[in-house]
Amino acid sequence: MRNLKSKLKLKKINYKKIIDYGFKKINDNYIYKKYISDNKFYVEVIYRNNSLISKVVEVDGNYEYILVDINSVNGDFVSKIKIEYESIIDDIINNCFDDDIFKQKQTKKVINYINKKYNTKLEFLWNDYPDCAIARNPNSKWYLLIMTISKRKLGLDSDDIIEIIDIKHPIDRIENIVDNVNIFKGYHMNKKHWITIILDNKIDDKILFKLIDTSYILTFD
Questions:
Q1: Are residues 100 and 11 in contact, defined by beta-carbon separation less than 8 angstroms?
Q2: d(Cα 219, Cα 168) in Å, to the nearest integer?
Q3: What is the per-residue pLDDT for 76?
Q4: C-alpha radius of gyration, the chain, whole number
Q5: CA-to-CA distance for 51 and 56, rounded, in angstroms?
Q6: What average pLDDT does this structure show over 60-78?
Q7: Would you say 212 and 113 are in contact if contact means Cβ atoms under 8 Å apart?
Q8: Greater pLDDT, 125 or 59
Q9: Burial 157-191 (b: 16+ CB within 10 A, else e)
Q10: Bridge partners, 34 (sequence order)
Q11: Alpha carbon 28 to chain centroid distance?
Q12: Minimum mean pLDDT among 45-49, 112-116, 123-127, 178-182: which range?
């Protein structure tokens, strides 16, 4: 049996989608079964208590077919079943779970704000950094960047993981707004033009939204 926990790191269950997909709710379990390889095997996937597990079962004898989870076994027959198995798992993850990359309430408010006001959707440009996203104005210039980093990367004495926003700010006002507690000179951006804000509700939403508006305007220059 395979534990698919790693695939759910940045995902959350969508119960409507999982039922529409074909999962059956039995007590506290959501169970999906699909036959493969000319009905000689079936894949069973079970979701319960925020965990997802799966297995391939050989119909004749009803035994778990563990060869699909052994990397060193690569025969033609096993490889074919592995491909079908992986395809089913990937399809379930893509169709039954929603992205849940950013956890902070204020981050979610920011995402909702730029979507409603500017019709902007976040773009995830880097496969190696799934918790890093940008937003562009109609001229394709970045006006906002959201990412997850360690506090230590901002010069703070902590390894706690936080969510931050990078936005553009008038050069002549940066020194006055930076306090190195909640607002910093741009992390990973030009420090003469950008500031970084920790998204932990220490900065009022209205103030934060005005700063985002300023960044949006500045990136048209």
A1: yes
A2: 7
A3: 93
A4: 23
A5: 17
A6: 93
A7: yes
A8: 59
A9: eeeeebbbbbbbbeeeebeeebeeeebbbbbebee
A10: 43
A11: 25
A12: 123-127
**CA–CA distance, 96 with 100 (Å, rounded to integer):** 13
Tokens of 116: 């409603």
**DSSP string spanning 43-105?**
EEEEEETTEEEEEEEETTTTEE-GGGG-TT---HHHHHHHHHHHHHHHHHHHHHEEE-----H
| Coil, helix or strand at residue 153 | helix
- Which residue in 171, 170, 174 sits closest to 183, CA to CA? 174
pLDDT for 221 beyond 80 = no
The pLDDT assigned to 53 comes to: 96
- Between CA 43 and CA 194 the distance in angstroms is 50
Tokens 């033609």, located at residue: 76
Token readout for 41 is 């095997």
pLDDT, residue 171, reads 94
